[in-house]
């Protein structure tokens, strides 16, 4: 992808109203230089000595982040995510290009940096916030909030060595987020303490975002990226491969991690405005996919609870030892609703010959909530598409769910309960009404 | 330069808590806590004063006391210990704080400031102990004591200048960190700390004069042991040398900093 920054902001302006960006990244690059020996490196600071070789970890990175925007950074290990984040926080210096930030950048990456076990929680907070550049008076003002947010009671005034690791994380998170930053970098390891505290910390991050903080979220977790971010950036081998809507980026990312056998990844924009990602080595391919009612009529609008049949025709182009077909239903924002494959259902087809065709019929009741759904298909060997991916198609089929006769409900799953209610009066304990 | 001064001021909270925490953690969980801060230098001074004076009771010209040698020695030690402590800690300052530097953004100038602060506190404790011991031994030189402020300043300047210069290079060339303790040992014996300057043979006298520490420790001897003012010319020379070294290391840091974190 070689989008100019200008184009990028143009495409973005269709989805967001963009005030002045809080973070501007232009032509950013980082290289590690190797010299014949370290003395030559020292000499190079004062002269025109050329390095033996330069290894570019990151190059030509351009993007903006607007106020209040949440941007996910995805990419495989070694794609340059950490290097990018370190340059944004400022610990690493760019080799070329620049990063312009308007306001304070804070990172919830290394929680508890510089904590000392011999000191109390309070002393560590004072030190830690000092390390963030705050004065004693500012920290004193915030201390009560920090103590209240951490919720560790009397432990706050005890040496940290007696803390559980969860308590340490609570204090660390509380300090790190005691002052609202303009840009907040959140690592995927946002597993701060127990479930209760995780919810609480998440709420705080959300609250910051409402107040205008931009979020940069690094994660491999699809659900986190799709539920939190307005936008995602896919890094691969030190370059921005894609910059777009989270669900599209995650589909693409999925395709890349399957791209182990020099298979190519194809992206086609669909009429619906979504982006279809196709990848795979191509020994088997989907010829046709269609959705039918039980009477055989083709469907694109399905009633809640209606029995349907998904027909998938597969063509085999080369002799294959085995074939697994998988499918996945995804909702409008790309969250997985349901998915399985014939490996899990113990229906692996073996010894296939070139020229064969297979037709899979998947019958199920469409117990889905109203809205738009898409079907992703995969043809591969063994249990996942990560090894020997013959074909992967996102948005192979899109259909609408409508609620024509059921009672109103919310969500993507129709799991209608029977509701019973018992009422007791103060005098009698016998139930006098049930619904 | 101005920028880094501003940064130091902005991070004063970090600097003060760092120095305090260093002291607190050093004595944490010990029963008498901070008293160790006095006991350590006191035992050192007492060993020199009592043991060495008994063994080497030779009177030194210019000091009117039977403990002359011990007084001479502790005077020199006050200067030497400040110099070597700052130098040693500066040598490893970036490597030891590599985690902090890799993960957080803060003015790096805060690190040597923390070192200086904590070394000065240690030196102050040693000085107080020395004063008490000197008083007990009946040796007192009140008129020249204010000179110590100047001497301390110059010692800090020299140690920081040289220490940071080597500390920056040590990030890239780690041999420096291995080599320096050896060099420091040579320097120690090449400086009249444990022996009187007068016993150095004529031939070596001119050579030893090239050692800046000879003049620095000599000034400490003048002020604390002999009770007369140090040579102003020597002090000016040392101050210029220290400032020069500090300036060079500031330039080196500026050049090295883009690659510093990469190498850590």
From TrEMBL, chain A:
Biased composition (Low complexity): 1-16
Source organism per UniProt: Halomonas llamarensis
Entry-linked InterPro entries: AAA+_ATPase (IPR003593), ABC_transporter-like_ATP-bd (IPR003439), ABC_transporter-like_CS (IPR017871), ABC_transpr_TagH-like (IPR015860), Bact_Polysacc_Export_ATP-bd (IPR050683), P-loop_NTPase (IPR027417), Wzt_C (IPR029439)
ABC transporter domain ranges (all copies): 40-262
Annotated region described as Disordered, given as residue ranges: 1-22
Keyword Transcription: no
Protein family (similarity comment): Belongs to the ABC transporter superfamily.
GO molecular function, one term: ATP binding
Keyword ATP-binding: yes
Domain of life: Bacteria
UniProtKB keywords: ATP-binding, Nucleotide-binding, Transport
Stated name of the protein: ABC transporter ATP-binding protein
Automatic annotation (TrEMBL), chain B:
Locations listed in the record: Cell inner membrane; Cell membrane
Mode of membrane association: Multi-pass membrane protein
Main location: membrane
Family per similarity comment: Belongs to the ABC-2 integral membrane protein family.
Segments traversing the membrane: 35-57, 69-88, 109-136, 148-172, 179-197, 232-253
Record's protein name: Transport permease protein
Domain ABC transmembrane type-2: 32-256
UniProt keywords, alphabetically: Cell membrane, Membrane, Polysaccharide transport, Sugar transport, Transmembrane, Transmembrane helix, Transport
A Pfam family that the UniProt record links to this protein: ABC2_membrane
Top-rank lineage group of the source organism: Bacteria
């Amino acid at each position: 992808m070689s989008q100019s920054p200008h184009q990028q902001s143009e495409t973005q302006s269709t989805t967001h109203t963009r005030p002045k960006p809080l973070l501007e990244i232009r032509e950013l690059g980082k290289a590690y230089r190797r010299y014949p020996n370290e003395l030559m490196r020292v000499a190079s600071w004062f002269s025109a000595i050329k390095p033996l070789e330069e290894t570019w970890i990151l190059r030509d990175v351009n993007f903006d982040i607007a106020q209040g925007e949440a941007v996910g950074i995805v990419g495989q290990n070694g794609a340059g995510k950490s290097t990018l984040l370190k340059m944004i926080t400022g610990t690493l210096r760019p080799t070329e290009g620049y990063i312009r930030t308007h306001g304070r950048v804070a990172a919830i990456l290394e929680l508890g940096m510089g904590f000392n076990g011999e000191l109390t929680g309070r002393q560590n907070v004072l030190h830690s916030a000092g390390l963030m550049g705050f004065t004693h008076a500012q920290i004193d003002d915030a201390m009560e909030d920090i103590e209240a947010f951490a919720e560790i009671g009397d432990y706050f005034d005890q040496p940290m060595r007696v803390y559980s690791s969860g308590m340490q994380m609570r204090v660390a998170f509380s300090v790190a987020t005691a002052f609202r930053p303009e840009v907040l970098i959140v690592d995927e390891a946002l597993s701060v303490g127990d479930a209760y505290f995780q919810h609480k910390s998440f709420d705080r991050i959300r609250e910051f975002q409402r107040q205008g903080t931009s979020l940069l979220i690094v994660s491999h977790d699809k659900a986190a990226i799709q539920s939190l971010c307005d936008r995602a950036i896919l890094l691969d081998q030190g370059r921005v491969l894609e910059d777009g809507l989270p669900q599209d980026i995650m589909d693409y990312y999925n395709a890349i991690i399957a791209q182990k056998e020099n298979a190519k990844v194809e992206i086609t924009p669909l009429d619906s405005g979504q982006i279809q990602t196709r990848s795979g080595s191509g020994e088997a391919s989907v010829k046709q996919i269609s959705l039918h009612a039980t009477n055989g009529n083709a469907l694109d609008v399905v009633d809640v609870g209606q029995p349907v049949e998904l027909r998938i025709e597969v063509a085999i182009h080369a002799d294959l030892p085995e074939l697994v077909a998988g499918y996945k239903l995804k909702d409008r924002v790309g969250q997985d609703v349901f998915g399985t494959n014939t490996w899990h259902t113990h229906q692996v087809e073996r010894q296939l010959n070139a020229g064969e065709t297979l037709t899979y019929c998947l019958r199920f009741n469409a117990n889905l909530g109203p809205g738009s759904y898409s079907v992703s298909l995969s043809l591969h060997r063994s249990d996942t598409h990560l090894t020997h991916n013959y074909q992967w198609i996102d948005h192979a089929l899109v259909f609408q769910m409508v609620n024509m006769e059921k009672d109103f409900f919310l969500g993507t799953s129709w799991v209608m309960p029977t509701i019973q209610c018992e009422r007791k009066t103060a005098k009698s304990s016998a139930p006098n009404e049930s619904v | 330069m101005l920028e880094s001064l501003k940064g130091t001021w902005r991070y004063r909270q970090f600097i003060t808590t760092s120095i305090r925490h260093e002291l607190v953690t050093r004595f944490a969980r010990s029963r008498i806590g901070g008293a160790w801060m006095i006991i350590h230098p006191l035992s050192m001074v007492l060993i020199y004063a009592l043991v060495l004076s008994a063994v080497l009771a030779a009177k030194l010209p210019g000091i009117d006391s039977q403990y002359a040698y011990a007084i001479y020695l502790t005077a020199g030690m006050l200067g030497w210990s400040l110099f070597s402590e700052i130098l040693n800690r500066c040598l490893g300052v970036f490597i030891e704080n590599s985690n902090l530097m890799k993960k957080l953004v803060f003015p790096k100038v805060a690190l040597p400031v923390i070192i200086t602060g904590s070394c000065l506190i240690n030196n102050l404790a040693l000085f107080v102990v020395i004063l008490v011991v000197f008083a007990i031994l009946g040796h007192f030189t009140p008129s020249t004591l204010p000179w110590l402020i100047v001497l301390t300043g110059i010692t800090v300047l020299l140690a920081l200048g040289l220490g940071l210069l080597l500390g920056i290079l040590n990030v890239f060339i780690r041999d420096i960190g291995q080599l320096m303790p050896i060099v420091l040992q040579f320097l120690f014996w090449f400086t009249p700390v444990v022996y009187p300057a007068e016993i150095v043979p004529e031939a070596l006298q001119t050579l030893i004069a090239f050692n800046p520490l000879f003049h620095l420790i000599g000034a400490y001897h003048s002020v604390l042991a002999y009770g007369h003012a140090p040579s102003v010319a020597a002090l000016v020379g040392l101050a210029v040398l220290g400032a020069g070294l500090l300036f060079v290391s500031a330039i080196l840091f500026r050049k090295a900093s883009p690659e510093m974190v990469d190498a850590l």
